[in-house]
Amino acid sequence: MAQHLKRQNVPNKWPISRKGTTFVVNANFNPSMGMPILILLRDLLKVAQNRKEVKSAIHDKNILLNNKLVIDDKHTAILFDVITLIPTKANYRVELTEKGKFTLNEIEPSKADKKVAKIINKKTLNGKKIQLNLLDGTNFLSDIECKINDSVLIDFKTRKISKVLPLKEGANILVFEGKHAGKIGKINKFVPELKMAEIITNNGKMNVLIKQLIVIE
Fold first, then answer.
1. From CA 98, how far away is CA 199, in angstroms rounded?
2. pLDDT for the residue 23
3. Which one of 70, 159, 191, 192 has the largest count of C-beta atoms within 10 Å of its C-beta?
C-alpha cells in the first residue's frame, strides 16, 4: 500500500480538510475502517504539532494501541481500538460521530482493556478448531458459541475472547458503513430475504444492511 494518499482521496470517514498539503500519510491497513496513528494524535487529539513529535513519542515507547506498544506512525487504529498515552495515562477509543466521521473519545481506565469486534467469517481448521475472522483484521481460535455477524468482546490482557454479543432482535448496534454510518440504535426486526434489519434510532426507524451493522454492548 502506498505510504501517502492524496488529500482529496481520503475516505469520507476521515475528519480532515480536503484543503491543505497535497498528500497525507496513508493507513497501512483498511483505511475505510480506521486512521493512521499519526493523524489521530496530531490532527484529532492535537497532542503533537508535527510528525517528528509523533515519531519521538513512539520511539520513547509512550504510545499503546490495544495495550501494545506502537512502532509505526502509519499503523491503523481501527474502529473501537484503544489508544493509550502512557505519560498522561489517558485512554481514547476510536469511534464514529453521528455524521459517520472517525473521532477519539476519552474513556475510563476500567474500559481500556477491551474492545468489540464483528465476526465476518468462521473456519474449521485441522483438529476441528474454529478460527474466527474479525472485521478488524484479527483472527482467534475459539470454541465459543457464536455466529457470523455476531460481535465478540476481546480482552487485551488475556488476548482472548471474553464474551459474545449476538446479533438478535433487541441488540444494541452501531451502523458503521453506508449513508447511516454513525447511527446507534436497537434491532427491531430482521428482513432475512433482503439481508437487512429494521433498527430504531433517535431519528426513527430505518432499514440497514446487516453487513453494515456491528453489535455493541
1. 15
2. 53
3. 70
